Structure formats: structure tokens, C-alpha cells
């Protein structure tokens, strides 16, 4: 039982440490994100590409050492074969020991012989070289900043052109909608005209029919009256 309790305590302690480390990592990520957002706001709402930094501020591919803002490639030596793959060289006699040739006094100075240059001059030259390197680095950084500004200007111009194109497309769509509305209005007017013509045609036909009936009725009544008058003249006693 005691062993189980100790094991449980260890697990709880480990979990607590793990959660604490995760919280610390999360806090670090949040602070980094907040810092990046602040930098973006200071730059005017644009994200800057995250560059690695060296003494010159320029990275050129996968390279090894930074010297004055430029990376020097690593010398690639040929790979030596492993001990099992090395060829077995037979025993050879030792080479004869040759005495080193004496250096020419006129061409090569002795190691302890002074070069004739002052230490101060050498330091000044080194400082001048360093200043030249720093100037070159500053020029390169300025060029990079100019290039970034040009890229941002080009992006803004492209965005403006796209917005203008979208506005033109919207105007064209509105014009097409207006044309369609005009066509619909014309169709409605034509339908109304056709309906009016149909109604007028029915009225005309009805009025003609009524007129014929009335004329027939008038003719019939007049004929009947004339016939009655003739019959009264001929046969007055029978009609009375």
C-alpha cells in the first residue's frame, strides 16, 4: 500500500511539472505573438518576413560561417573509406629523411625578423577594412529595405487595380440589370396593349350583334303595322 501511495504521489508530481512547463511554453508563445502583432502595427499593418540574423544580416543558402555579412561555403573534403573498406597496403621501407632546405634570405624573411610594418598601421588598416565592411552591410540593408518598399508599393498598386476592376464589373452588372428591367417593362406594356385590343374586339362584336337584333326588331314591327293597316282597310269588320 505504501509503495502504491508513493507511486501515485510521483505521478501527481510529474503531471504537475509537465503542466507547469506547458503553461510556461504557452505564455512564451503568447508573448511572442503579442510582440509580433505590435511590430506589425508599428509597421503599418504588414507582416515582415522572419529573417535569420548574422553579422551581415544576409543569409545565402546552407552555408557555414559568416564573414562580414557573407557566408562562406564549407570546404567539402572527400570521404575517407571505413577501416573495413580501406585497401591493405603492403609493408614499405621508411622514406629517407631529407634535410629541410634553407630559406632564401632575399625572398623569405626569418620568423623573428620584423616585417617593417608598424603595429599601429596594421590596426588602422584592420579598422578601415572593418568600416568598409560595415558600410557595405549598411548599403545592402538599405537596398533590401528599398526592395521591400518597392514590393509593398507594387502590391498596393495591384490591389487598387483589382478594386477598380471589381467596381467596373459591378457597374456593368447594374447596367445589365437596368436593361433587363426595361425589357420587362416593355413586355408588360405589350401584354396590356394586347389585352386592351382583345377587350375592344369583343365590345365591337357585341355591339354589332345587338345593333342587328334591334334593326331586325324594328323592321318586324313596321312590317306588322303596315300589314295590320292593309288588313283593316280590306276587312274592317273582321279585325274589329
What this model shows, in words?
68% of the residues lie in helices and 2% in strands. Residues 50-55 have low confidence and may be disordered. The chain has 240 residues and is mainly alpha-helical. A two-stranded antiparallel sheet has the order 1-2.
The pLDDT mean sits at 70
Fraction in helix: 55-70%
**H-E order:** HEEHH
Task: Figure out the total of helices.
Answer: 3
Taken from the alpha-carbon principal axes, the silhouette is elongated
Q: How many individual β-strands?
A: 2
Class based on secondary structure composition and strand pairing = mainly alpha
Summarize the main sheet.
2 strands, antiparallel
Based on CA atoms alone, the radius of gyration comes out at: 56 Å
- Portion of residues in beta strands equals under 5%
pLDDT < 50 stretches = 50-55
Instruction: Tell me the strand order in the biggest sheet.
Output: 1-2
State the end-to-end CA separation. 148 Å
Biased composition (Acidic residues): 122-165
Biased composition (Basic and acidic residues): 1-29, 62-76, 166-192
Biased composition (Basic residues): 46-61
Region (Disordered): 1-205
Amino acid at each position: 500500500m505504501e509503495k502504491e501511495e508513493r507511486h501515485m504521489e510521483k505521478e501527481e508530481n510529474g503531471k504537475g511539472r509537465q503542466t507547469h512547463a506547458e503553461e510556461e511554453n504557452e505564455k512564451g508563445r503568447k508573448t511572442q505573438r503579442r510582440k509580433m502583432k505590435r511590430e506589425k502595427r508599428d509597421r503599418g499593418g504588414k507582416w515582415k518576413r522572419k529573417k535569420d540574423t548574422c553579422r551581415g544580416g544576409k543569409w545565402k543558402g546552407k552555408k557555414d560561417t559568416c564573414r562580414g555579412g557573407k557566408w562562406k561555403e564549407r570546404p567539402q573534403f572527400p570521404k575517407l573509406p571505413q577501416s573495413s573498406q580501406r585497401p591493405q597496403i603492403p609493408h614499405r621501407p621508411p622514406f629517407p629523411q631529407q634535410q629541410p632546405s634553407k630559406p632564401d634570405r632575399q625572398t623569405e624573411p626569418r620568423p623573428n625578423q620584423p616585417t617593417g610594418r608598424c603595429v599601429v598601421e596594421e590596426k588602422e588598416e584592420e579598422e578601415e577594412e572593418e568600416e568598409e565592411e560595415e558600410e557595405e552591410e549598411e548599403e545592402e540593408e538599405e537596398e533590401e529595405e528599398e526592395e521591400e518598399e518597392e514590393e509593398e508599393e507594387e502590391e498596393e498598386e495591384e490591389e487598387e487595380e483589382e478594386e477598380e476592376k471589381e467596381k467596373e464589373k459591378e457597374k456593368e452588372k447594374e447596367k445589365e440589370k437596368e436593361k433587363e428591367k426595361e425589357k420587362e417593362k416593355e413586355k408588360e406594356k405589350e401584354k396590356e396593349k394586347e389585352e386592351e385590343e382583345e377587350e375592344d374586339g369583343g365590345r365591337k362584336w357585341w355591339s354589332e350583334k345587338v345593333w342587328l337584333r334591334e334593326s331586325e326588331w324594328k323592321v318586324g314591327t313596321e312590317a306588322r303595322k303596315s300589314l295590320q293597316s292593309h288588313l283593316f282597310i280590306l276587312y274592317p269588320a273582321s279585325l274589329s
